[in-house]
């Protein structure tokens, strides 16, 4: 009778699965709770409460999806962060490939943001006037959040499961969780997350790093928000005296 030992690779994969499920649950239940929304609405003036709630949600995501699981994971397995993978792109993905993908993402965002079901819920900060300050807050909030998000998805989860079970099982596991976590955003976005997630997985595996995936995801989120503001008749860019409503 053949027995299979609980290898370090398997232990890391199981830990990554545990971290992504518990971390995302903790993030979602904290950041999007009715109590959090009521608290910000009660204590902060209208308009500014949207900004404060947005930053709270993104920083909560950074903590539960990046800082906390990363600290536990690397302490638990005595690994350096470079292992999962902050540095060392090998073999490199050509820069022009990343640029072309980014341009394609911007083009797609410009097209999709025209639809009411997109600009009715994006951007996340539901304020009327958008100036440089509001744009910087939005882009910065997304950057902080997506750094943690891609770290746990295309870093810990993807590379750990690839080591334990192989590349394609790792990709399928990644796409499954990525799609499931998009279910609250509706069927269309859930289905769209699958091809986009596949691209991010491939880019990450080819580069040996989650950082290209982070950059592409950031381009998607920021460009979608900017185009959604442009097409939303109830919002406008105003670069003087912004944040009035």
Structure in a nutshell:
The chain has helices at residues 8-31, 34-43, 48-77, 95-112, 116-119, 132-165, 167-180, 187-207, 211-231; strands at 129-130, 236-237.
Which features does this protein show?
245 residues; mainly alpha; two-stranded parallel sheet; 9 helices; 2 strands; 2% strand; globular
Describe the structure.
The protein is mainly α. Helices cover 72% and strands 2% of the residues. It is built from 9 helices and 2 strands. Helix 6 (132-165) crosses helix 7 and helix 6 (132-165) crosses helix 8 (187-207). The longest helix is centred in the middle third of the chain and has 34 residues, at 132-165. The N and C termini lie far apart (70 Å). Mean pLDDT is 87; it is low at 85-90.
Biggest sheet, open or closed, and with what strands and sense?
2 strands, parallel
Q: So what's the overall shape?
A: globular
Task: State the order of secondary-structure elements, H for helix, E for strand.
Answer: HHHHHEHHHHE
Low-pLDDT stretches are 85-90
Q: How many independent structural domains?
A: 1
Strand content: under 5%
Q: Which class of secondary structure composition applies to the elements?
A: mainly alpha
Strand order of the largest sheet: 1-2
Number of strands: 2
Computed over alpha carbons, the radius of gyration is: 19 Å
Q: Percent range for helical residues?
A: over 70%
Cα separation of the termini = 70 Å
How many H/I helical runs? Answer: 9
- The overall pLDDT, averaged over residues, is 87
């Amino acid at each position: 009778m053949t027995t299979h030992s609980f290898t370090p690779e398997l232990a890391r994969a199981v830990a990554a699965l545990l971290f992504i499920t518990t971390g995302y649950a903790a993030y979602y239940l904290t950041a999007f709770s009715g109590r959090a929304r009521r608290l910000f609405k009660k204590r902060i003036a209208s308009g500014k409460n949207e900004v404060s709630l947005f930053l709270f949600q993104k920083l909560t995501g950074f903590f539960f999806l990046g800082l906390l699981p990363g600290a536990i994971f690397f302490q638990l397995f005595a690994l350096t962060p470079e292992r999962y993978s902050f540095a060392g792109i090998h073999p490199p993905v050509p820069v022009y490939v990343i640029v072309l993908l980014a341009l394609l993402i911007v083009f797609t965002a410009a097209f999709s943001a025209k639809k009411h079901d997109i600009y009715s819920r994006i951007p996340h900060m539901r304020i009327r006037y958008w100036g440089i300050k509001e744009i910087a807050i939005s882009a910065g909030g997304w950057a902080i959040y997506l750094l943690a998000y891609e770290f746990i998805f295309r870093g810990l989860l993807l590379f750990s499961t690839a080591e334990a079970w192989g590349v394609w099982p790792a990709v399928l596991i990644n796409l499954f969780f990525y799609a499931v976590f998009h279910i609250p955003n509706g069927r269309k976005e859930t289905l769209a997350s699958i091809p986009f997630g596949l691209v991010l997985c491939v880019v990450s595996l080819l580069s040996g790093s989650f950082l290209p995936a982070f950059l592409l995801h950031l381009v998607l989120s920021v460009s979608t928000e900017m185009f959604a503001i442009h097409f939303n008749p109830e919002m406008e860019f105003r670069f003087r005296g912004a944040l009035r409503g």
